[in-house]
Amino acid sequence: MSLTLTILPELLSICRLAPEKKIPSWAVESNFFSITKTIDELSIVCPTKFVPSGIQCDNDWRALKIEGPLDFSLIGILSAISTVLAREGISIFALSTFDTDYILVKKEQLKKAVDTLKRNGYIVN
């Protein structure tokens, strides 16, 4: 199965807030955001332009969307992509939704990630 990935246009930040914090309004301002709350932290992924100063973040991420929807019975999609990228020394941050998965890579590694994926049979738009 040949998978297609699409590069999303936004520059993203991965932010960490204290677990007792409420979800801030800036976190949900865009068409793309992800929020995960655990007992240990509140993590927010959103476009960098919406993150106020003073927030603990790792900036300069780009997202590759695995075009879906992907059936829950499919096995090893994230594993295969992350293995291909790991062999080239490319670190990822993965997000999953009901329909698909997203692979985030640092913006300075985006071209290398795209070239690597294409060499390994993936289609990247």
Automatic annotation (TrEMBL):
Residues 57-118 form the CASTOR ACT domain. Residues 13-53 form the A9CJY8-like N-terminal domain. Pfam families: A9CJY8-like_N, ACT_7. Gene3D superfamilies: VC0802-like. PANTHER family: CASTOR ACT DOMAIN-CONTAINING PROTEIN, CHROMOSOME 1, WHOLE GENOME SHOTGUN SEQUENCE. InterPro entries: A9CJY8-like_N, ACT-like_dom_sf, CASTOR_ACT_dom, CASTOR_mTORC1, UCP008459. This is Amino acid-binding protein. The lineage of its organism: Bacteria, Bacillati, Bacillota, Clostridia, Eubacteriales.
